[in-house]
Design brief:
Helix content is 28%, strand content 14%. It is an alpha+beta fold.
Length: 230
């Protein structure tokens, strides 16, 4: 492990700071998994199948980043694969790109990363909204759910922001602090949707808007999540 850490630090010394940090999580609703499990089974019952499909998807993702250069000219990367508590693997990847002064500008960042509910003006927007609503929204602590892990040791009656920083403030445009992560655009567009409040037994609902959207890549979301199975 120490050797791997030193190798990773050598990349940073050579290339500088990573350009993008990408998290890629196995989806138990992938058609390749969903269509192969037996009646009564779930993805948890077939770790062999999940691991095999996840590996295929990861290899395709790496091809998209290196050879297709979907985010720009590739220079290098380092990644690790971990497992969630319920058994699904996920990838954390630091990507090094050949960048210029335009890379860390709001206009350029907004081309690849969004933290807003998509419009439904066309079929692509409709599919993306279905994906985002199901997978890219921080809902655990919505409605004052004090049992959420992100609210541990906090009093929901006094604190409105969880340990994860949600719900976040509206922001008219993306900003890039001098020494920190970008703060992604979260405009008050009026787009929202209703969900059942976790821990309420389905009796309470809450309105979700851009303040609870997790940053996501529209391109990767459309490529690797199957809307027909959501």
């Amino acid at each position: 492990m120490q050797l791997l850490f030193q190798d990773s630090m050598a990349l940073v010394r050579h290339f500088g700071k990573p350009s993008l940090f990408i998290t890629f999580t196995a989806n138990p609703k992938w058609a390749e998994i969903h269509d192969e499990i037996l009646s009564g089974q779930t993805a948890i019952d077939r770790p062999d199948l999940v691991a095999r499909v996840f590996n295929i998807k990861v290899r395709d993702l790496l091809d998209q980043l290196k050879h297709k250069q979907v985010f720009g000219p590739w220079r290098g990367w380092v990644w690790t694969i971990e497992y969630q508590k319920h058994g699904l693997p996920y990838l954390h990847l630091l990507l090094f790109l050949k960048t210029d002064v335009q890379f860390l500008t709001p206009v350029y960042i907004d081309r690849f990363i969004s933290a807003e509910i998509p419009t439904e003006d066309d079929i692509i927007g409709q599919q993306l909204r279905t994906i985002m609503v199901s997978t890219m929204v921080h809902t655990q602590c919505v409605g004052g759910n004090g049992n959420a892990l992100c609210m541990k040791d906090l009093n929901p009656a006094l604190v409105t922001t969880s340990h994860k920083g949600y719900s976040r403030d509206f922001l008219e445009e993306t900003t890039v602090p001098e020494n920190g992560y970008p703060l992604y655009r979260r405009r008050n567009t009026g787009r929202s949707f209703m969900i059942r409040v976790p821990g309420s037994g389905g009796t309470l609902t809450a309105m979700i808007n851009n303040r609870r959207v997790l940053p996501y890549s529209p391109y990767l979301s459309l490529r690797y999540i199957m809307p027909t199975l959501m």
